[in-house]
Amino acid sequence: MIDEFQFTDEEITLLVNASLITVRDIGSWWLAIPGAGIFMKTFIKGRQALLRAVRKAKYQEVLQQNLEERKIAAVAKLGMSYHIMDIIGAEFVTKIQTTSGWLLRLKE
């Protein structure tokens, strides 16, 4: 980092003290994001709770509207809609338009 980006020792010390980088080896560092661990823990627990709810549903499918109305404690911090969009985007479920609304079906 010193050679490639021309950081001084004082600047690197400042970044380490601010917890933005952590020392990996002599002359190399890891980028650190404060609070990322707490976010990831909350994110994973919410995703698992939502997928568990879909798995327990009959035929492993549930209407999105019904899922949004449920109260799941692990999902509370980031919000139900956030986690629903996450499992759709990660392709854990397929989203199918029905006359009753969007149906979320667990992928095989």
Distance between the termini: 45 Å
Percentage of residues in DSSP E strands: 15-25%
Count the helices. How many? 5
The coarse silhouette is: elongated
Structural class: alpha+beta
Order of helices and strands: HHEEHEHHEE
Strand order of the largest sheet: 3-5-4
Rg of Cα set: 21 Å
**What is the residue-averaged pLDDT?**
89
Count of beta strands = 5
How helical, in percent, are the residues? Answer: 40-55%
- Main sheet? 3 strands, antiparallel
pLDDT < 50 stretches: none
Molecular structure report:
The strands form 2 sheets. The protein has a 3-stranded antiparallel beta sheet with strand order 3-5-4. Strands 1-2 form a two-stranded antiparallel ribbon. α3 (36-56) crosses α5 (80-89). Helices cover 46% and strands 22% of the residues. The mean pLDDT is 89. It is an alpha+beta fold and 108 residues long. It has helices at 2-5, 9-17, 36-56, 64-69, 80-89, and strands at residues 21-25, 28-31, 61-63, 93-98, 101-106. The protein is built from 5 helices and 5 strands.
Write a concise keyword list for the protein shown above.
46% helix; two-stranded antiparallel ribbon; single chain; 5 strands; alpha+beta; elongated; three-stranded antiparallel beta sheet; 108 residues
Brief synopsis:
The chain has five helices and five strands. The protein has 108 residues and is of the alpha+beta class. Helix 3 packs across helix 5.
